[in-house]
Amino acid sequence: MTTQRRSYETGHKPKCLVIVDDTAEWDRAVYYASRWAVRVGGGVVMLRIIAIEDQNQQWLGVADIMRAEAEDAANEALDRASGRANGIAAITPERVIREGDPTTQILDVIDKDVDISMLVLAANPGPEGPGPLISMMAQAAGSFPIPVVIVPGDLSDAEIDGLS
Question: SUPFAM superfamilies from the entry (predicted)?
């Protein structure tokens, strides 16, 4: 990926990409990103990735039904996250739903939007580790096209306010 970032050029504004998933800590990433967007006059892009289920389910439209249900669930999650961002910072984030491998989809969204200047993730504070997405991203960190901000999942709103 070699797309030049244009976040701070005339006619552009910086955006951060936030992944809205099923983890408990997604709220910390949304909170940080929303506060950051207000502080820098930027925007937030929220991405929900739908996992691809077994493709052998094509008979009788089962795969289509499963896909529609997954899209409904993705829209509900993005509604919650967008409402949270609006409540924090009175912003309306962009919403993107993608299907497939998370790393591939994240990179594609970044490649297609030259204003995305950082990826914001939140880490699980528990003993089971930071979470699957952060573990996956750690493998690509050396060649990732933009900075990655990892917000500790146990930071309070007040603590994030002091950082963003």
Answer: Adenine nucleotide alpha hydrolases-like (SSF52402)
